[in-house]
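Explain the record.
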Amino acid sequence: MKVLVVGNGGREHALAWKLLQSKQIGQVVCVPGNGGTASMERCQNLSLRVDDFEGISQFAQSESISLIVVGPEVPLAQGITDNLQAKGFLVFGPSKAGAQIEASKAWAKALMQEAKIPTARSAVFTEVEAAKSYVKAQGVPIVVKADGLAAGKGVIVAETLEQAHKAIDAMFGGHFGSAGKFVVIEEYLTGQEVSVLALTDGISIRPLLPAQDHKRIGEGDTGENTGGMGVYAPAPIVTPELMTSIQTEVLEKAIATLKAKGIDYRGVLYAGLMITPQGEFKVLEFNCRFGDPETQVILPLLETPLEELILACVQQRLSEMPPITWKQGACATVVAASGGYPGTYETGKVITGIDRAEASGTIVFHAGTQFNQGQLVTDGGRVLNVTGVGKDFDAALDQAYLGMQQIHFEGMYYRRDIGYRVRK
């Protein structure tokens, strides 16, 4: 079968890489893809925008595409699934209505309250002064969030009143575009963040391995929030007992409430949770797609063929599938970023050493790369996901950093403390 993957990041490279491991998959087409997907056998890039629904549809029709897998949140929020399903295609990814769970933090908060899902106390604002008055009354630290999609950067943890007011001004001032028309302010929670991605057919839901991301740009979890600087799985803080509680108190409640609203949600439901020092959990946010870079550490450990799980979701027969099987061991990825990220950065820097990294046993997923006149160059803030698999976390992290040492591009930056919580 032929599969079309929508997106151009590390997540999409990992999806294409995993799908091509199956004997059932003859070819993967990535729209628009990146330098990594362009380099794989039986994989081609198609130079279309992710929001060119008509172009994607015409290509899928002419090439007899069997399945379309949507990676990023933006086309999902724009209704790509509705558009392509109406033309008869099998699409993995929720409808526009379902994607609101990520596209609007205010909508997601209301859903959580309706479903009685544990989450941080919060309020939604449309005016600057009301938001600032609320912050003053609540005190700091406090979390200020742009309501809509902001590429993982629309969350500010304000430790002072001045920082909170600055964040509110920035959001209402258009710093995050239309995402800042509404602002969600919520209580600051302490503990460790984890990501629980689950597959659902809209009726039943199955969690994948829990992962733990490092969102801050600086070592020691300091500095600005990013889309993620490194991640590992399975996150030991999520015990089997805790995962059972998350399944019943978060995942199943969310899907049941979506269904009750008449929303047919088939795809990934991703819960970002805070695990408190007391071992309790609260949902920080929901996402409507595979996480990035979480996908890059979950899929290397997956033994069940990915396309079988995806098709079971799309065809609403997930409950008939046997339990998902996993490889023993651990996986870790370290992000190589452009200098200046998550702020202003330059692109077009020549990348070398990936062949040496892969020869050492490292998996390199491309995130922001492209070929320019035959040379692989940087084309984004997060450039590469350098990934190691091993019998334990030390082995996986050592492998990832061994690979990183072989790679170079001008201004390359990466955190050297990824996995510090699980190092022996």
Q: What stands out?
A: The first strand starts at residue 2 and ends at 7. The mean pLDDT is 95. The chain has 14 helices and 22 strands.
